[in-house]
Write a structure and sequence with these properties.
This protein has 299 residues and is mainly β. The protein is built from one helix and 24 strands.
Length: 299
């Protein structure tokens, strides 16, 4: 998973501190501009976006704006409405850039996506906008956010509850989908709904399946299946079988009213010599996390 800091970011190369600057041509001259680093229309939910802010240095100083130091914010818009805003600066330096025969000062930043998964709809249009003092930049090109996390060695896993509110003791079921977005087949621990616990899957945080696990002789045969590029595997899992550990010690999942925020981690990190030879071809050996879901249990 890719982590983005809220702070404006710097690149350090050979001991020289540099600020990343977008190379796109700015056609319509504006005193204040923001542009996305990546020319993409869709981003993953855990990816965030990187951007550059430009200020026309030939302009008189904007009221309330000390570019690169104070008075700036970056806004995340959803369908034209502000849903998140962060203060920018100060940065260690800005860089001069001449674009379209105009002189600009610039610095770069990163905006993580920090809102609940339930609010993510790939149809929504997102944009960034920057303010400096009383001046507001034009918004960036629109982009979209999908609920999937960034692929790990080609694989992604998404969980979706059939509903989000339950009564104490009611079966809590979720749909789990694993897909291969890579370029080659992967032998991986796919989701199964055969009534037994999943090897190489863990419900986070602090939950373990209470049912007996298959012994090692059948663990690989049952758990590892090939997903070709573009293929997916789907299963329905019941969460009530999970018993709490740590802060949830002694609880069965859903046995107490409250709000549960959970996700699955999927992993396969066995040493190669510990895996039977017939399972080593195209074997996926990594660790990924799904999206986080929120479930409410009431009396």
């Amino acid at each position: 998973m890719q982590n983005l800091s809220r702070a404006n970011y710097l690149v350090i190369f050979c001991g020289v501190v540099m600020v990343w600057v977008a190379a796109e041509r700015i056609v319509n001259a504006q005193p204040l501009l923001v542009q996305l680093e990546a020319e993409r229309s869709v981003f993953y939910r855990d990816e965030g976006v990187r951007y550059s802010v430009f200020y026309d240095s030939t302009q008189s100083r904007l009221p309330g704006c000390n570019f690169g130091f104070s008075g700036q914010t970056v806004q995340l818009l959803r369908n034209g409405r502000i849903i998140h805003e962060e203060t920018l600066g100060p940065v260690s330096m800005t860089i001069a850039k001449r674009i379209s025969d105009r002189n600009y000062a610039s610095f770069g930043g990163a905006m993580p996506f920090q809102f609940p998964d339930k609010d993510i709809d790939v149809k929504d249009a997102y944009q960034l906008r920057v303010t400096c003092g009383n001046h507001v930049s034009p918004p960036t090109k629109a982009f979209h956010i999908e609920p999937w996390s960034e692929p790990v060695d080609g694989l992604q896993v998404l969980i979706r509850p059939f509903k989000t509110e339950f009564k104490v003791g009611e079966p809590i079921r979720v749909e789990v989908t694993m897909r291969n977005r890579g370029s080659r087949p992967r032998l991986c621990p796919v989701p199964l709904d055969d009534g037994r616990p999943l090897n190489f899957w863990k419900l986070q945080p602090h939950w373990l399946d209470s049912r007996p696990y298959p012994d090692e002789d059948e663990m690989y045969e049952r758990s590892l299946k090939v997903l070709k590029p573009g293929e997916s595997r789907r299963a329905t899992l019941t969460l009530n079988h999970f018993r709490g550990t740590g802060v949830n010690q002694g609880l069965m999942f859903g046995s107490r009213e409250g709000t549960y925020q959970v996700w699955f981690s999927v992993f396969f990190e066995q040493e190669e010599e510990d895996v039977p030879a017939k399972y080593r071809t195209n074997l996926w050996r990594a660790d990924l996390s799904t999206n986080i879901i929120e479930l409410v249990v009431r009396k």
